[in-house]
Each structure stands twice: as structure tokens, then as C-alpha cells.
Design brief:
The complex is a heterodimer of chains A (479) and B (271).
Chain A (H helix, E strand, L loop, with lengths): L1 H30 L5 H14 L1 H6 L3 H22 L2 H6 L3 H21 L7 H27 L3 H4 L4 E4 L2 E4 L3 E6 L2 E6 H12 L1 H4 L9 H19 L4 H19 L3 H30 L3 H9 L1 H7 L5 H13 L21 H8 L2 H24 L4 H20 L20 H12 L43
Antiparallel strand pairs in A: 1-2, 3-4
Chain B lengths: L39 E5 L4 E4 L2 H7 L2 H4 L22 H5 L1 H4 L28 E3 L4 E4 L4 E3 L2 E10 L9 E13 L4 E14 L8 E6 H5 L9 E10 L6 E2 L10 E11 L4 E2 L1
Parallel strand pairs in B: 1-8, 11-12
Antiparallel strand pairs in B: 2-9, 3-12, 4-10, 5-13, 6-9, 6-12, 7-8, 7-10
Classes of the chains: A mainly alpha (479), B mainly beta (271).
Amino acid sequence: MNLKLKMLGFAGKYDSLIIFLVIECLALTAFSLADANIVFRYLGFLVSLTLIPYVLLFTTKKELTSLLIFSIPLLVVAILTSFSTFTSVMGYGILDNLSVLLGTIAFFFLGFAVRRIKSFKIDIVLLTIGAAMGLLVLMSLIYTLFSYGPFYAHIYRDMVYYYDGRLFIVSDETKWLLGFSFVEISKNYAALFGTILTSALVGLLFISPIKEPRKFALTAVIGTIGLASIVLIPNLNALYFLIPLALFALLYRFLPKREKAGAIVQYAFYALLGIGGVALVIAVMNASGVDFVANAISGSALLNKIFNANRIMAPINAVLASSLRSGGLFGFPLTFLDGLFAATGAFEFEIIKEGGLIAFLALLAFMILIVFSLFRYSAKSKDSRYVKAIIITILLGVLLNGSFIWETFPLVHGGDYYYSFFRSAPYLLVLFFLGYAYYPLRLTPTIETEHAFESAPVSASPSSRSGDEFEPREEEIRL
Amino acid sequence: MRDVQELYDGHAYDTGDFMQNYYPVWNDGLAAGRIGEVAKTYQITTTNGFQIESDDDIENKLRPTDSKNTDGDYYSFTSDTPHDDAEYGYGPSNNLIAIDEVFAKGFLSRLYDGRIHCDGVTYAQTRVQIDQGGYGTLFEKELTSYRYFAISLKGADESERSYAGGIDVNLDVTFYVYDYDDNLYIPYLFRFQNFAIMTNSGMRTTVLGFYFDLIMGEDIALLRRASAMSVTFSLAAEYDDITIDRNDIASGKDHFSLMLYEILLPHSTWN
């Protein structure tokens, strides 16, 4: 009892400070200040420790158990992307690897736990992340336009230039603020940030420019920076991936019978899951050299085209084969790929290289759980639709970009510098949003029940001392 | 829009056709009327200059401080993979890009990257092919201090014939110092006289060079603020079967060109 009182006292005394630290941590991560992801991961871990009392106070044992079961695949991913044959060969160092383990768990936990603070406003976090990342993207965009001019990827399409005695295609790159200097980076890498920012525009469908003019304006500015960073290059790949995001937003906003639509989407997801599962099993058997499967595929022109002879499957097969046939179950060095870096363009398959086959399966399991969790979050959470739409769009945008155009060697002039998705700043932000949007698969979270914060301490902030402070309601702010 | 000022449609001067690969570009700043009279001409001979074609030459023809790395080991002449062989290979340890990154920009960066031989893989992507008219370029910075100059090259013609003793050439390397009073580039000519260079030699190249203090003596300060350079050449003997004029089609002779691989100004500083 004493401990609970102490925790209540702590929670009441420091909630504003902890919210500030969480926002600061997320802002630094979104801005990628000094490209010091290792610092952000440890910072996230330290801040997450301060949130433990809130979780213990405002989460039931059932919820915690559910969360722990839900998090098992993520834990496996965290461990194996931190300590694997790949990370050992790459020589990241124990501190860096440990930061990946702690940071992966911490940012997911941050998202989950910070909701337990009564005065926490997700709107503020979204705008802060948007502002910080918007600053990064805007500075990079201005320098890009200064260096190449607008629409250069179209105007100078396929044209080359020489640097350091080597040839580069100008339309493939963009300028990027990395650390404290600008570098040339793959435009697809920058597009991930642009897509995250563009997701803010979705929010405009859910708020009124008259009732909330400042919030509307801020959201519009953040989104426009993101969209401009894609359009002014232009990066057509990234533009195509914005179409499904826009469709999702429009359906989410204007579809009249969302429950029915939700059911249809769920069934479609099950169907996709089934087809994807079968395809994956076939691909794994093909890559591992199971004779009758490999022969059947190579004997059929159509199957061969689908499973072997295309630019998507070729690198995936190379990665799978290295994992299954060359002793790379726990990841493997790039040299296994025989000169081919096997740029799968998909973080889901890059993890086979970086963490191994078990990490790959754990990631798939986690992604499936996430889909169910997000279904429930979008349908049942009391968050405003503005918040839900933006968060889901961000996650969808990262999924699309990360699954098709993720580049592990994005630095144009420093071609041998490996970028792991699982060590990147966007990954940390995604984990935060996943933790925040986590919704138990069978329960209703305590914080979303009617008496959620009945035992909550009186907050230091005047607004939370109002009479209806313990009434659950949509977390809306008015700027 | 400085990063799109020098773009090419494809692999520049790398067509697979010998006659199409000449790099004849003279920067507009070095156009006729913008260059003054040659202020001084220095003769480089096999006596006061040096010629390097092996590891032994590195040891014997360069001064001790220039032939060894910081560990006191002699540089390897053959190891020339840019960046990877830094501190080990002669080229990658002394190249201009390693001295100042401004040299990394543009087509001519291949002359400053440290690769002093034909790499046998990318061929035309590592070299600059010139005829007698050569090329002229401006630097983004001005030369402020300098110890010695070296240029890695070989001869090549359209035939596959072997030239056991090489081909004798005169090589003119000119540095230009801008005269702000007259708005002219003032040339200082360094003429390599009668050097036999490897020709049709596969991956192997010849490095020619000289020490500024030895050649210029008390004049050594004259090159301070040099901000442009050009390279031209002529044949030092009569050769019946080759011509160094890429426009000479009528004679029926094989076209002979210089393949430049590297321009080195080790230990130089730039401002």
C-alpha cells in the first residue's frame, strides 16, 4: 500500500516533467539530431523507466499479461537484431547493440505507458514530431532545391555526374541533413520522412479550419512540407505510395457504414494472410532447395516468373538461401551474398540478413498482431479520429515505403555505410506509435474505461484539476 | 543549381570507340584572350625530373619523406584502390581529393582519386584521353604551398601493337596564376622533354614528376595562388605510323593519345 501511495505521489508530482521528457525524446529522434540514434535509444530507455509507476497504477494484471504476450515477438526481434552474426560481423559494438535492444523495447513501452498519464495529449506529440521532422525535411529540401533546382529528377532523369572519380545518377539522390552537414542520400530514403509528414494532411479531413484554425494550419504546414519534399523532386515511387494512404483516409472519413467495411477489410486481410502465408512457405522451400518445389517452379514459366525471375524475388531468394543453406540462421555477413548486396528493398526481408530466420518469423508474427491491434484501436479507442487517422496513416506509409523502397546503402558517396531499418530513427517513432495504439486483443484498456483515472493523483497542471478530469473523453486540444 | 552544372547523358567519354573518347575540354576561363604570355618556362629532363614505373622507383627516385607512409614503410606503387589503399598505396595516399574535397567534383575527379593505373575493370572510367590539344581546367581553390608534381599516364593508339621501349613524348604541364590587374591567367610552363612512356601497356603506367624547389629554385613562390592547369603534349621523335592529331583522318595513321590517370600534388595546400 505504501508503495502504491509513493507511486501515486511520484506520478502526481512529476507528470508534467515526464511528459516533457517524452516529447523531448521524440522530437530529438524525429529531427535525428546529429544522427545520434544510439543516444535517442538510451534516452528513450531512461525516460521509459520513469513511466513504470504509471503503468503499475493504471494497468490491470490481465492487461499487462496481454501486453507481455503481445510483445514476445517484438522482444525476439529486439534481441536478434541487436545480437546476431550480422551485428557481430558489422562490428557495431556492445553499447550500440545493447542500445538497439533497450531502445526497441523502450520506445514501444513509451507509447504504451505515456497514455497512462492523465494530462498527456497525443495531439501535442504528433505536432511536435511533425515540427521536428518538418524542420529536418524543410532544411534538406531547401538545400536540395538550391543544389539541383525543382523537379530535377524529371528534368535530369538518368543523367550522370562524376564525384570522387565515380559515376552517379543525379535523379536518384537528394540532399539530406545528416548530423551537422548535408550529404547526398537516396531520394527513397528521404521519401520515408516525407511520407510520414504527408500523413498529417489526412488529419485535415477530421478538423475544422474555423473551429480549430491554429491546429488546422499547423497540421497543413507539416503535411505540406512532407508533400513538397516528394513532389518537388519529384519522387514518383513515393508519390505512388501516397495513393493508398489517401484512399484509406478518404474511406475512413467518408465511408458511412464503417463497421461493415471493417468486417470486409478484416476478411480481405485474412485472405491476404492466407495467400501470403502459402506464398511464403513456397518461397522458403524454393530457397532452401527442396527439390520437388524448386523443380515445379522452374518447370512452369508462370511460377518461375513469380518466384524466381523478377527483380523483387531475386534478392529475397538470395537472402533466404543464404539464411537457410549457408548457416545464416541468426543473420549473416554481407559477404555471404557473393558480391550482391541483395537489396530486397523490404525491411521484412532485410531482417533475415540482420537477425536471422527466427527474427524474420517473429517480425511477421508481430506485424500480424499489430494489424489486429490497430483494427481494434481504430474501431474502439476513444482517441479522436484526427489522431487515429494520422497514426494509422503514418504506420501504413512507413509499411509501404519500408516494404518496397527501403535502401540499406542510402548514402550516395559513402556507398559502404550500411543503414539498418531496425537501427533507424523512423523505426523508433513507429515503435512509439505502435505502443501508443496498442489495444488488447480481448480486453478494454483500463484507461479507456469509465473510471480510468479515479485513483489518479491531482496533477500539477491547472487544467487537470477541473471537476470532470476523471471523465474519459476524447483527447482533444484546442490550440 | 551548382550540382547540375556538369551532367552527362551517360558514361562520359566512355563509348567503346577510341575516337569518341577524347576529352578536349578547355574551361571557358582559359579561352583565347584570357591567357597572358607565358611568364616562365622550365625544362624537365630525366636528370632533374623523375620517372616511376615500379616499387623500386618509389624508393629510389622520391625523397625519403615522400616515399614512405607515416609508419615508415615504402608506398606500394601497384596498390591504388581509392580509399581502401590509403596509407599503403602510393596513389591513394597522395591524391588531391584526400588533400581537399573540392577536387572530388566533376569528370576530372578521376584524375584526383588516387587510382594511378588502369584498373583493368572499368577501363575508360578511370582515365582521361587527350590528343595533342590536351585539356585545361580551373581549380575551385588556389594553390598556396607545394612540394612536388607527378602525373600518371600511358600512351595508347588504335592498334594493339607493342612498343617495347615506349613512345618518346614531350609533355607540357602549365599552371596559371590569375593576374587581377590585367584580368588574365599568367601561364608557367613545365616542359617534360623527351620522356619514354609506356604505351599499349595494359594496366601499367608511367609516373612523371619533378620537385618544384629543384626546378624553380628561387622562383618557387611564383606558383602561389595558381588556380588553373592544362596538359598538352607532342611526340619527341618521328613515328611513321601514328598521329597525335585526332582530326587527322587523311593520313591513314593510327591515332595516338595520352591516357591520363592521375595528377598528384602531394603535401600541397589550397585556399
